[in-house]
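so my prof wants the structure for this chain in the tokens format not the other one, which i didnt know existed until like an hour ago. anyway here's the sequence
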Amino acid sequence: DRPTPDPDRGDGGRDRGDGGRRDDGGRDRGDGGRRDDGANGGRGDNDRAVPRRPRPGDDGQWHERPGSGIDRHRGRVDTAGYWHVYRDRWGRIEEEYGPWEREVSQRDVRRGGAETGLGQSAFYSTALDSRAYRERYVLYWRWLGYDCDPRDSSRCARWVRQWRWFLEDVYHGPAEFMTVELRFNGDQPLLPWERERFSLRFDGARVWLDLEDAAFRYAVSGPVVDYGRGVATIELTPGSRILRSAEAGKVNARLESEGKLLRLLVDDARAVWYAGETLELRWTVMKVERPSWRNPFGKDKKIAQRDETQPVRLVVDATRPQTAVDLIPVDGGEYYVKWGFRRAASRLSSGEWHGRPDTNKVQR
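here's what i got, hopefully its the right format
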């Protein structure tokens, strides 16, 4: 019949014995509203008078446990937290078993274009196994303190038992086996840098496929399961290409000057594949500034820019992977360019912008 602990009150949930009445007539106590009964971080004078005792040990005596409401923890017990194995009055360990469940077995099929080293086949086969399992939990308890000394949390005015089930073992039963065959009908070639990943899964009863990272919108047929042979077949038929992000590192730029004119040389390493498409550029010419009384932090100055609303548009030419873009004439000083690109309306890639590192610096 212990009272429910209330750590926020600091009085262990005990009744004050005054019926909730105040005996100061509601008058101002003259202390600015402060309390010195230990409620202010345990620093009051009365706080030192509260009897506190260290954490009790395991007395080895049987104590009746709560009938319900004990949390279940899927991790192993942390012995550093002063947990004790609970035993009933006959000295037996209290344990519970979870229901029998099935593991989900998974294998990934990965394939890719010529530059990936993965290869691209139209047929894959993999063996999956799913084991039955159930978990065993053991009941533990530990001392939990209330109204503890703010200078020494191991000494508290009241100690109560906290109960928890902890995972102790996992028992495994028989396994089910399945061979899964993945077939591609009318397979389409992947781009040299493209990769695909398909996850085949089996839970002892069902076989299914997750299209984790596909290059096309595939129509899925199956699985068709031959339980006699233990073989499941899934067929994929490619549809339209899924436009994925372009490779940011395949477009680079270098800054040069010719007389007073700044010029940006743009190299497109994928020009052969994106020939005829539009490459859009945004750029900002920056002038290097040295610290001065007007600019104490040496913040570089923006000279000119073409942003995303008015980009430079280049038509990709497979025979000329490098393109020169004239920027602006400038006077003396040191300059560099902040820039980015996107492949607009591409049939191969999505059209988001890619920010690129600042160019080299040019001295005029």
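also thought this was worth mentioning. The longest strand covers residues 152-184.
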